[in-house]
Amino acid sequence: MDDAGIYARHYPFLERYVQLGVASGRVISVTFPEQPDDDAADDHDLLDRIQTYFDGVTEVDFGDVQVALTLPTDQREVLETLRENVPYGEQVDVKQLARMTPGLDAEDEDDLILVRTALDENPAPLLIPDHRVRDGPSAAPPEVEQRLRSVEDL
Fold first, then answer.
1. Using an 8 Å Cβ cutoff, are 77 and 119 in contact?
2. Residue 68 included in any domain
3. How much is the pTM?
């Protein structure tokens, strides 16, 4: 992806749009608006892959999509751990994700707060699958989160 701009497409499965912000070939945001930005284009390869994901016929892995994470380092580490270690169709809870993240203690309340904060501030839900953390917040709206879980039978 060496493009830049705002891209959006309506997905009947979600009953809303998926909108991507792309800069320097990296996704900087994924949102789920009811109406896209006026200047959003609808022709992007990643939007095609997202449709394939929603079709549910085959597992779609977004691990190769470059995502720019402009978050504090500790939050970025949580999201990278989630993205790299919790595959399609699997779930973890907040404590498990804390255990998986280097340097975090699943029994430390501050570390659990850090994990929840990272999930809540995730700039690219779906690509960084916070819907796979069953007891954590998602950056996607609740109805979108539930539909993402249904695609993966979670």
1. no
2. no
3. 0.93
